[in-house]
Amino acid sequence: MLKHAAPVEEEEQVPEEKDNAPPFGSLEWIYYWSEFEGSLPTPIDVSITGSLKYWCPDLEWYNFDVYPHKVKLTNTGYTVLLGAKWRAERPYLLGGPFSEKHVFSQVHFHWGSNMMEGSEHRVDKRIHPAEMQVTFFKSEYMTQEEALRHRDGVVIVCYLIKYGVNPDERLQWVVEGFARIQESQTSTRIGPYPMSHLFPMFFEDYFLYWGSLNTVKGENYTVRWLVPRATLCASFEQMKEFRKLWNPWDEPNLRNFRPLQERQDRHVFFISPHWSQYNSLLPIPRVPEPSIAILSPAYKERPWLLPPQNADLIPQENENEEDENENNKII
């Protein structure tokens, strides 16, 4: 349960709770609705209008500044899949609507045949050229496959990709690898760069809802969907690179997004609103925002596990301790 849940505004009405429902304002209350809404179809339109404002602790991003050992980009024939491996602890999310650690799994993209379509989710009923979906799973389940079997196992963070006049540097290092994976079922190495070079990180101001994930094998899983108000952007030239990728039939993969579904009566939580609520999506910042990633306790206790590129992340207190030890030896 949240220790400090903000009071509900007077104009908002708290939804009627069932007899066995946890108290409103708790994390358990969010999880409770998965039982009733987890099988509803996705994607949907989300908006500040009609959503339920709900306060959670700050979302914390651990190890997203740590360089991976390798980053692999794959054209599956249906989407572009980005996976990464670390020699030690991988990035993970904690806090926010999560009661436990959720580790990074993979990234994939959706796009359309032109700049007027491509995103799976709509925000304020607007469609954008593409969408980047990042999958995380609950660490206790060990693998994404096992986590999908549990209602609380998987969360997908869905970044809308707007049109931008200039190329988005966060996407560019990924898009540059597309020329090497034009054919279906081909892979290449890119970077490697830390995931903070790709993900706009946020600790508040995002939408959350429950819905199903259907696979090509006909399997149906319950997933939490997070749609942040922070976005990416892509230029016309960057989007053209997506449409050059081939599907399994050696033809350009022009449309790989799912059709929009009805929201029905499900809850759409507007988590910890903060910024201007004139539009549901935030404007693209003119200057890159500083990273809010946190170094995990495991790396702080064992800084030698950090890759050479992250020498600047070694905690200062460890350096001071080493200096003190050297001074003691001299004395």
UniProtKB/TrEMBL annotation:
An example GO CC term for this entry is: cytoplasm
Name it.
Alpha-carbonic anhydrase domain-containing protein
Q: Name one GO molecular function term.
A: zinc ion binding
The UniProt entry's coiled-coil ranges are none
- Ranges for domain Alpha-carbonic anhydrase come to 27-272
Matching InterPro entries, A to Z? CA_dom (IPR001148), CA_dom_sf (IPR036398), Carbonic_anhydrase_a-class (IPR023561)
Please list where the region (Disordered) is annotated.
Answer: 1-21, 310-331
- Origin organism is Euphydryas editha
The UniProt entry's sequence similarity note says: Belongs to the alpha-carbonic anhydrase family.
